[in-house]
Amino acid sequence: MPELAHTIHLAACSISPRSLDMDHALAAMLDDLARPGFWAACEEKVLQARRLFADLIGADVDQITVVPNARTAAHQAIAGRRWRWKRTLLSSTAEFPGVAHAWLGGQQGGARVRWCGTDTGQVTTADYLRGITSRTALVSVPAVTYRDAIRLDVTRIAEAAHAAGATVFVDAYQAAGVLPVNVDAMGCDYLVSGTGKYLLGLPGMAFLYERHPHPGPSLAGRLDRTHPHTLDPEPPQRASWMGTGTPAVAAAYAAVAGMSLIAVLDLNEVRQHTQRLLDHATDCFEQMGETARVHAEPDERGAHLALMEPRAEDLAAWLGHRGIIVAPRGDVVRVAVHAYSTVDDINALCEAIRKYRARSTPRAHAGGSR
Ligand SMILES: Cc1ncc(COP(=O)(O)O)c(C=O)c1O
Question: How far, in Å, from the CA of 71 to the mean position of ligand 1?
Fold first, then answer.
């Protein structure tokens, strides 16, 4: 990964690092562009990307549709749904805002959104279990929350949701590519993830998994048809009802490169590796008097931690100038680890934060916490 030769990339919860494979993929795309048959090459790339994602989550390729982003996937999952008395859409305050907007959009069609979790955006599996009622029609669960990396027990939530006759939508953006994700083990009906974070590709493409055929098209595009090049208004097929048209081609090439890197990894080992690194980072932060939000139980954590910092953007910019890329969000600096991360990366980060604190006005730290 060339970028890693010059930087310490601890930000895959926000953006993938640049890899040599991605560089080669984008160069190949430009070569294809200069040759006849570009669209055929592009369609093949999209199919390859769908196959790689299907393999990653234990699905069939025809259950996977390419969409531009997670928000569109959420919209597609409820498009055309008829909400009757069973109309509650259970989401949480830890939902990624774009996905939450899709659920709020569902209210125009008669759904009622209920939020579980605290006002400050923390949610537990128990909050979801308590929120499910006989009126719940759909439960939307982030596999790992985007800010605090809380890993929810999707399997238990899906069991409870199904027992109440509800369907389950999982946002696996902060999970797929860095920890094992299996749609059958989770028991979800829909799952979305995008290519520009732990999947090591570019932003601009997301995948929607759908367990059962969707009742009707809302944003189906021409590439979702069985014969994309015919001009008759033939309807699209199955999961492809949900596609949205010409995909982000560069993102498709990069997605294949990124997911091919992941396909050769044992994600159980990657998980153990990332948890060891997070434990190490937590210990260092505690010794330094920093406050980090990270769940004590490894089973209940994703692959990043949230370091509390009221001026998160300032700290991230300062680190960035020193070649350490982290992901600020609100009042936290997120530190994300992946298969390529090392103990040296964490040590370098801690050392840099020590220097940052030493040069800033002395401040009282609240003491470390997990
Ligand atoms: C959990 C989660 N869901 C979704 C997204 C992205 O949503 P969208 O593709 O709609 O912008 C992100 C990050 O950007 C995320 O962290």
Answer: 7
The boundaries of every CATH 3.90.1150.10 domain in the chain are 2-18+267-359
What is the CATH number that goes with domain 20-263?
A: 3.40.640.10
Q: For residue range 282-322, what is the model confidence (pLDDT) as tens digits?
A: 999 999 999 998 887 888 999 999 999 999 999 999 999 99
* Start-end of CATH 3.40.640.10 domains in the chain: 20-263
**Reported pTM:** 0.92
From 146, 169, 198, the mutation candidate for ligand 1 (largest count of ligand atoms within 8 A of CB) is: 146
Write down the pLDDT at residue 46.
Answer: 95
Cα 31 to ligand 1 centroid, rounded to whole Å:
31
Which superfamily is assigned to 2-18+267-359 in CATH? Aspartate Aminotransferase, domain 1 (3.90.1150.10)
pLDDT at position 270 over 60: yes
Q: Is the CB of 70 under 6 A from ligand 1?
A: yes
Q: How far is the CA of 41 from the centre of ligand 1 (A)?
A: 28
Backbone angles phi, psi at 245, to 5 degrees: 115, -160
Provide the percentage of residues in the chain whose pLDDT is more than 70: 88
* String of DSSP letters for 55-116: HHHT--GGGEEEES-HHHHHHHHHTTPPP-S--EEEEETTS-HHHHHHHHHHGGGT-EEEEE
Report the candidate in 92, 94, 93 with the shortest Cα–Cα distance to residue 148: 94
Ligand 1 centroid – CA 227 distance (Å): 31
- Measured from the CB, is residue 171 less than 6 Å from ligand 1? yes
List the residue whose alpha carbon is closest to atom 14 of ligand 1: 14
Q: Check: CB of residue 49 under 8 Å from CB of residue 259.
A: yes
